[in-house]
Amino acid sequence: MVSAKKNASAIVWFRQDLRVHDNPTLHAAQSDGDILPIYILDDVNAGAWKMGGASRVWLHQSLHDLNRSLGGKLRIFCGDASEILLKLVEETKAQSVHWSRCYEPWRIARDKKIKNALQALGVSANSHNGSLLWEPWTILKGDQTPYKVYTPYYKNGCLNAPEPRQPLPAIKDIRFAQSSVTGGECSLKALKLEPATDWSSGIKKVWQVGEDAAASKLENFIENGLHQYKVGRDFPASNCTSLLSPHLHFGEISPHQVWHRIKQEEAQFGSDDLIHYLREIAWREFSYYLLYHWPHIPEAPFNPKYAAFPWRHDEQALGQWQKGQTGFPIIDAGMRELWQTGYMHNRVRMIVASFLVKNQLINWREGEAWFWDCLVDADLASNSASWQWSAGCGADAAPFFRIFNPVLQSEKFDSEGVYIKQYCPELSGLTGKFLHKPWEAKPEMLEAAGIELGVDYPQPILDLKVTRQRALAANSSLKT
Ligand SMILES: Cc1cc2nc3c(=O)[nH]c(=O)nc-3n(C[C@H](O)[C@H](O)[C@H](O)COP(=O)(O)OP(=O)(O)OC[C@H]3O[C@@H](n4cnc5c(N)ncnc54)[C@H](O)[C@@H]3O)c2cc1C
Question: Does residue 284's CB lie within 6 angstroms of at least one atom of ligand 1?
Fold first, then answer.
């Protein structure tokens, strides 16, 4: 019996765990027999939440890297994962299928169906935790209901739960099944993840993708950013954040690897910066927690009162925000950073989100959709929870009346305008406060800086005071 099992092949279905280190799925599958590693691009079941453009560019590079780590043995498929898996099992006679759990509602529904179908065929279907420090169903309040507020979730829930497991070593000699697969397989190129336009060149220029890149980014951050993190993380030009979000999203590094590496540093240096960083890692966990317990959050406000919010429909204003043409330098710098690199600094994400939702009075779902398409770290849990947080309608959200003033934010967090000048180079000739509000510069100053407002750089598209009042009035119009 045992030897029969040993020879059986196990399918390892890679999803958001595109790594060979600390991969519990790979470990479990390897003990079942020789493995067949696969990836399926399933746009069929994803529906409205199929991967956006920037994520696809990242995925292309990441699959390429994983395939290299697997000695070229990764098999790639495209289509309905249920159909593909069942066909594969039939063809290869695999006796087990292993995957790392995902928490998006559409994936949970699909995976349950797949598990049932595999079990009905007598195939062992196994899901593992490769992406979260704490499974969402294990952290509950005393009355067995889920937390809605981050601090008690983290402090009373997570920090009182068993310590997240230590990272697993990479398997030295992965044994691959010899199974030949005949139907449905496609090459990475055939997935057409990279656009024909040169838009993605900016992303490819600034990011090193893959498992090795993620590991060295963590070490680089520990050396150069971690010990100034608590304060530095708010300054977009300070390079004090880890830039690990896309790597964590695609599972090129696990939160366990990050958590325990930072804990090692904490044991040695113990500082507020490290504690603060772990707290941010736990915000990612909290986002997944919210999505798991309230699966409607990508589509509807957590606080139902906001379902009746009087949003404006204004295509022109939305387009100006998307293209970084609002006339507010910090907003435009952020939106252009997003377009050019597939990333935006967290502080700036909060500022541009507040501007869209509160000053422009445009539904947060428009912002969520734009970020979904443009971010390399686009993540259903973190994106929806963060947009709801910014819009004041989420769990433990910033109150709606807290409206960021983009000029004050810019003066505080980019006082020298280093970030602004990087993404709005046409403003480089301006200095001091005028970099943050060019419309207040005298004509001769603008002329000396080579700027004609409305020609080289937009006039501000709205009045901050008037739109602030409008937002507060809209909020007050809601019944409590
Ligand atoms: C409107 C809006 C939309 C966002 N959309 C996403 C998204 O789609 N995907 C995404 O990963 N993050 C999102 N965030 C959260 C945050 O901006 C990014 O995680 C962070 O900027 C990533 O940069 P970093 O890796 O250098 O972060 P660091 O400061 O180095 O933090 C380390 C890690 O902690 C996690 N983290 C940090 N802050 C948050 C947060 N507020 N919420 C959840 N996790 C966090 C991330 O995994 C991050 O990589 C969004 C924030 C806002 C305000």
Answer: yes
Q: Could you tell me if the CB of 352 is within 6 A of ligand 1?
A: no
pLDDT tens digits for range 58-109: 999 999 999 999 999 999 999 999 999 999 999 899 999 999 999 999 999 9
Same domain, 85 and 136: no
Domain identity same for 351 and 260: no
Read off the pLDDT band of 6 (50, 70, 90): very low
CATH code where residue 230 lies = 1.25.40.80
**Cα–Cα distance between 99 and 25 in angstroms, integer?**
6
Query: Does residue 468 share a domain with residue 319?
Result: yes
Q: Which residue, judged by its Cα, is nearest atom 51 of ligand 1?
A: 386
* 225-237: average pLDDT: 96
Closest Cα to atom 37 of ligand 1: 280
Tell me the CA–centroid distance for residue 179 and ligand 1, in Å.
Answer: 40
Q: Is any ligand 1 atom within 6 A of the Cβ of residue 228?
A: no
- Note whether residue 299 is domain-resident: no
Name which of 107, 25, 39 is nearest 78 in CA terms. 39
Beta strands 96-100 and 124-128 are parallel
Q: Which amino acid is at 373?
A: D
Residues 77 and 108 in one domain: yes
Decide if 280 is catalytic: yes
User: Rounded to the nearest whole angstrom, what is the distance from the C-alpha of residue 382 to the centroid of ligand 1?
Assistant: 7
Q: Is residue 126 over pLDDT 70?
A: yes
**Which stretches of 355-442 are DSSP H helices?**
364-374, 380-391, 406-413, 418-423
Using pLDDT thresholds of 50, 70 and 90, give the confidence band for residue 170. confident
Give just the sign of the alpha carbon dihedral 464, 465, 466, 469: positive
In a domain, 175, yes or no: no
Please give the Cα distance from 47 to 4 (Å, whole number): 40
* Residue 169 DSSP code: P
* 161 and 139 Cβ atoms separated by less than 8 Å: yes
Out of 241, 267, 293, pick the residue that ends a domain.
293
Whichever domain contains 97, its CATH number is 3.40.50.620
Q: Which domain holds residue 419?
A: 304-476
Domain check: are 343 and 391 in the same one? yes
Chain length of the chain: 480
Q: What is the pLDDT of residue 384?
A: 98
387 in active site: yes
% pLDDT > 90, the chain: 89
Output the residue whose Cα is nearest ligand 1's atom 46.
245
Provide mean pLDDT across the span 184-202. 86
**Mean pLDDT (the chain, rounded):** 95
Residues 469 and 342 in one domain: yes
Tell me: do 374 and 420 sit in the same domain: yes
**pLDDT confidence tier of residue 194, bands split at 50, 70 and 90:** confident
φ, ψ for residue 457, nearest 5 deg: -150, 140
Condensed to tens digits (0 to 9), the pLDDT of residues 268-286 reads 877 899 999 999 999 999 9
